[in-house]
Amino acid sequence: MFSRKARFADLLNTTLHQANVIAKIDALASIIEPDIPLEMARWSSEWGGTLEEWLANVQGLRDFAKQRPGFVREHIIEEFGLMGTALLTIEPPSGEGSIRVNTILPTTYPWHGSYFQGIPVKLQAEPAPGYEFTGWSDAFLPRTTTVVVSLPESYSVQTLFLPYEK
Questions:
Q1: Mean pLDDT (the chain, rounded)
Q2: Do 133 and 159 form a contact (C-beta atoms < 8 A)?
Q3: In percent, how much of the chain has pLDDT > 70?
Q4: Residue 103: half-sphere exposure toward Cβ, Cα within 13 Å
Q5: Domain that includes residue 115, residue range
Q6: What is the mean pLDDT of residues 130-148?
Q7: What's the burial of 68, exposed, middle or buried (CB within 10 Å: 0-12/13-18/19+)?
Q8: What is the per-residue burial (b if ≥16 Cβ within 10 Å, else e) of 117-149?
Q9: Is 75 found in the same domain as 94?
Q10: Residue 44 binned pLDDT confidence (cut-offs 50, 70, 90)
Q11: Domains of the chain: total
């Protein structure tokens, strides 16, 4: 089991990633927006807002979603005395297969994630049917399908798969 800091980094790279959060904001705003004129008519004496103000508030939520991950990462770095963040790049596999990063199975490559320096990251090679794992692009990693790495400031890796020979 990995640390909560590693799991939180996974969440910041997926569920809490700014693109995902903004997509949720946009989806909800598109549902709500047609009712805003009705809400303004009903509550105008108490609220007094305009559609433009509502749209500006929605944009404020988007702006918050863009800035929040950086503030959260910085807070974690300060709170736990970490060295900083590390950019992890998963290159497209050589051959057929995929690579799992902690709890994440990227679906497009290259895949980029931001992690914390000094917090181990688990990489697991998963060959496609008919292929076998033959190693990592980083010659310093053991030739095992699962490795744990402590990331420097920037790290790029690729899995190597070849068609299975009988």
A1: 93
A2: yes
A3: 96
A4: 15
A5: 85-163
A6: 95
A7: middle
A8: eebbbebbbbbeeebbbebbeeeeeeeebebeb
A9: no
A10: confident
A11: 2
